[in-house]
Amino acid sequence: MSEHLRDGGRGVVQRTAVIDLGSNSFRLVVFSVGESRWWKRTDELSEMVRLGGDLGPNGELSPQRMAHALETLRVFAAFCATSGIRTDQIEAVGTSAIRDAPNGEEFVQRARRATGLPIRILSQRDEAWFSYVSAVNQTSLTDGIVLDIGGGSLELVAVERRQAEECVSWPLGAVRTTERFLPGDGPTSAKQMAALREHALEQFATAPWVATAGRDHLVGIGGAVRNLATAAIRAAELPLDSVQGFVLTPHALDTLVEQLAERAPEERERVPGIKRGRAEVILGGAVVLQAVLEATGAPGIEVIEAGLREGIFLANQLAPADPPIVPDVRVASVTNLARQHGVDLVHAEHIAELADQLVAALPGAGLPAPGEPELVDAAALLHDVGMAVDYDDHHKHSSYLILGSGLPGFTPREVALIALMARYHRKGTPSLGSAAALCEPGDDELLLRGAALLRIAEQLERNRDQVVRGARLRRAPGDDDGVVLELDADGDTVVAEWGAERQGDLFARAFGAPLTVARS
Amino acid sequence: MSEHLRDGGRGVVQRTAVIDLGSNSFRLVVFSVGESRWWKRTDELSEMVRLGGDLGPNGELSPQRMAHALETLRVFAAFCATSGIRTDQIEAVGTSAIRDAPNGEEFVQRARRATGLPIRILSQRDEAWFSYVSAVNQTSLTDGIVLDIGGGSLELVAVERRQAEECVSWPLGAVRTTERFLPGDGPTSAKQMAALREHALEQFATAPWVATAGRDHLVGIGGAVRNLATAAIRAAELPLDSVQGFVLTPHALDTLVEQLAERAPEERERVPGIKRGRAEVILGGAVVLQAVLEATGAPGIEVIEAGLREGIFLANQLAPADPPIVPDVRVASVTNLARQHGVDLVHAEHIAELADQLVAALPGAGLPAPGEPELVDAAALLHDVGMAVDYDDHHKHSSYLILGSGLPGFTPREVALIALMARYHRKGTPSLGSAAALCEPGDDELLLRGAALLRIAEQLERNRDQVVRGARLRRAPGDDDGVVLELDADGDTVVAEWGAERQGDLFARAFGAPLTVARS
Q1: Nearest to B391 among A41, A74, A387 (CB)
Q2: Helix or strand or coil: residue A457?
Q3: Under a CB-based contact definition with an 8 Å cutoff, are residues B79 and B38 in contact?
């Protein structure tokens, strides 16, 4: 069986296994790259090793945990060997548990000998760097701070014009702060939490840039951040399956901290969205995040799905670039999704070009709305991505794939609007539905316009032959109400005209004007 | 851009356009075939031409409708030409409106000259034949009757051992019977409907095989049948997005007939599920179907999504076979879905083989349940089909793709169980959820067992290298409770054992016994 089919992907040309020897769990993630340069995760193994637990009197790794760790690494190595991933395609990294233990280096040497895996220990600085690489490639961050909170430490990276400028690390991880500042089997007192916040703020004060750099944009990485975001999404009953791009506000975080603190640690998993394995140690992390929000004055923490492992993969992948960042995250997300599913980009880009021309001269005062052209463009590129699932109902499948991908770089509202434009690009009456909870006033009209334009643009390219080179909307001369769609073409436009003429109903609903089609 | 990407598919090697010049609408459907021999619809154009309306005094096609029809055919021809579908890849057929009109042949000649499309007129017999080809390739029909009800006529085909044996046609279509027997702007009386049923039964009596051949299995084709099925699904609040495989029972049909009859024709679209364009003519069709159920004594009408166009495509596609039928519809459905999405069939078939071995010797009296091995086998072949969407949450994507495909040949209950086994093949606690409405007593345990076996089988082939050749479940010797999973292998099974051992929890829940893994 070819590699192509083995990964369920289209022409996989490269696979990379990133192995993360974390304090809590060990994980192996396979990233695949396709011949058309898409990338995605294609496999994962994980094991709760808890190497950072049961430490000896001087912080040594325990013999039992090391034995479990070695057994797990043997399985990971066997998996790579038998599934055809070579050693030079493996990145295996140890983080704080191994770095901080006096016998960490010795453990790594044993593990290298026993498994042949090219394990290296990441410095704090390297770890922060990979978090930055993840954040800057998976959000629209330009200037701000990236925070990564793990079990042991908190890293902050200042970002200016997409470059990492400053980096600090404090022992303010969720496990460490919960144990030190919030011990006990019962509810946690306001006083205990105030002491932790105070302590964190004192640390932050030692890096004066923290008070200014994160005011506009704070991006959060790590399991604790993702889990708190999930709980906030559940509390607000938002229609989101993923935390990608969600902004955790100070208010939502304060409410969660209250709910968590009033319960005993083992009861905290009852707060909807809080994971079982994380419930007992999450409060320390949440309080530290409150302190970060206070210190930076940020309006919230933008949460992403990616983390250290994606950062390592992307740093490799984008390596010739320094720093390893894509020129435009939104474009990269849209293109990656389109390529993963074999979208005909010549066709899709032509539809996007036609839609861009239409949106540039909309009939109506104050149109297009801010951001509207970019959303229409993305929807035009992705409207047919659902064809990879099935032709029947492919508009619904497109919406499913767009929502599932999360389109890093766009906000949840924007992703929902792009998905809905694709959803309504063929039929049905556009409606925000449950996505209204994510949207702003006027978004229902924006959706209506976007869907109407997309239907017209698609029909103009119905033949997939780029015969219609250009299209313009104009007020009909001598007729205040009517709008004429003028086409530039140099071939047979019978199918294009036939198709576009049939979109008049939705156009009239969106723009309050009847549409006629004319060849210029 | 290559054909591959143009169709959003994997290596499309052949495209066929089927153009159906129906009495109500004209439709062009593109079917694509992939290099791994999957097939699916990949495009569609349609236009409400209503060629069967406004007929002249002798039933002639009207000049206006013919002009509209010719314009539409010119668009279809231009679409084929510009999108690269050659004339020898086009099947264009006229049905009853053209066949029955005295100027139908003349219209076809004009249309051929004007468009170059290779239009031919289907005889009633041909039309019934293609309905049979659709039905026998999209259901598990062995012995029974295929019914196809259109606007003008009703065709019945007797099927014995999957062969078409008898065929009749009567002018009992939905439009014709509504106009003749159930005229009026108000509610329809029981007396009117009784007269229509009586008339239909008299016709059926002229073909004595109708009273016997359909007793066990009746398959229904046509828009009226599909629309009534949709309304019955809505009324029963069943979690079905498609009518594929749904059985419309006499009771559900009687209830719908009552609800439709008590409303004026233009109010009938208010019955949930009834389509606007069909509401005014559906009652005649529904009453004729009541008569078919009465005449045959069938327990219901199995409804399918496919019809004439699929029959024409499949008859071509399977042409060397006589009759053109696949050896096993269920196997063909599963394989088609797997191939459409590039499933690694060597890997998937190996997992299915391992799952088959496990299901053959389950610990527990009376196990496996009837039909269980076949469902587990299908789920094993399709569990990873969702990888085509994304690795993350691919178990959910597999369920989405399986439910969306409808898996012709399986019942809605079976499709739901296969989808749920795939849904729970990695994590989560298996539960029927809303699918319980489709299921039978004991199906929750069947799902639990299926998911548990699938998890084990997948782990045994976690490396995708077929190192585990065989697997058996055995009562542990000297221990009434325990079960041993014995493996036959001749390579490194460290990953397989590691993976299988981690599935003990669900196994214990499904079989009430702890699991240990041993190499034999």
Answers
A1: A41
A2: helix
A3: no
Backbone angles phi, psi at A321, to 5 degrees: -75, 145
DSSP state of B53: S
What residues contact residue B320 under an 8 Å CB cut-off, 6+ apart?
Answer: none
A77, A115 in Cβ contact below 8 A? yes
CATH topology of domain A330-519: Hypothetical protein af1432 (1.10.3210)
Share of chain B above pLDDT 70, in %: 98
Is B271 a residue whose pLDDT tops 90? yes
No. of helices (H) and no. of strands (E), chain A: 20, 14
Closest CB to B495: pick one of A75, A345, A405: A75
Question: If residue A228 lies in a helix (H) or strand (E), which one and from where to where?
Answer: helix A223-235
Tell me whether domains A3-122 and A330-519 share a fold: no
Q: How far apart are CA B143 and CA B216, in angstroms?
A: 7
The class that CATH gives domain B3-122 is alpha beta
A494 with B74: Cβ contact below 8 A: yes
Token pair 């104050």 is at which residue? Answer: A366
Q: DSSP per residue over B285-302, as a string? A: HHHHHHHHHHHH--S-EE
**CA separation, residue A238 to residues A43, A415, A416 (Å):** 29, 14, 12
Please indicate whether, in this complex, the C-beta atoms of A78 and B463 are within 8 angstroms of each other.
yes
> pLDDT, tens digit, for every residue of A289-311?
999 999 999 999 999 999 999 99
Rounded mean pLDDT of chain A? 93
Q: Which of A65-79, B437-451, B465-479 has the lowest mean pLDDT?
A: B465-479
**Is the pLDDT at A366 greater than 70, yes or no?**
yes
- Residue B280 CA to residue B278 CA, distance in Å, equals 6
Contact A42 B387 (CB under 8 A): yes
Query: At residue A388, what is the residue type?
Result: A
Structure tokens at A99: 């770095």
Give A196's contacts (C-beta < 8 A, 6+ positions apart).
A177, A181, A182, A284, A287, A288, A291
User: Which amino acid, residue A169?
Assistant: S
- Residue A410 and residue A329 in contact, taking contact as beta carbons nearer than 8 Å: no
What tokens appear for A398 in the block? 């497109």
Integer Cα distance of A77 and A88 in angstroms? 12
Contact yes or no for A504/A473 (Cβ under 8 A): no
Provide the H-helix boundaries in B214-317.
223-235, 250-261, 282-296, 308-317
Instruction: Identify all chain A residues contacting B401, using CB atoms and an 8 Å cutoff.
Output: 389
Q: What is the CATH number of domain B125-309?
A: 3.30.420.150
Q: Which amino acid is at A463?
A: N
Q: What CATH class has A125-307?
A: alpha beta
For residue B5, is pLDDT > 70?
Answer: no
Which residue from B365, B381, A251, B184 is spatially nearest to B373, judged by alpha carbons? Answer: B381
Q: For residue B163, give the H/E element and its range.
A: strand B163-170
Residues of chain A with pLDDT > 90: what percent?
85
Q: How large is the angle between the packed helices A443-460 and A372-382, nearest 10 degrees?
A: 50
Whole-structure pTM value: 0.91
> Residue A181: enclosing H or E segment and its boundaries?
helix A174-181
Whether A5 and B344 lie within 8 Å, measured CB to CB: yes
| Among B9, B43, B495, beta carbon nearest to A78 | B495
Amino acid of residue A438:
L
Return the domain boundaries, chain A: 3-122, 125-307, 330-519
Architecture of domain B330-465: Orthogonal Bundle (1.10)
User: Chain A: nearest CA to B291, how far in angstroms?
Assistant: 33
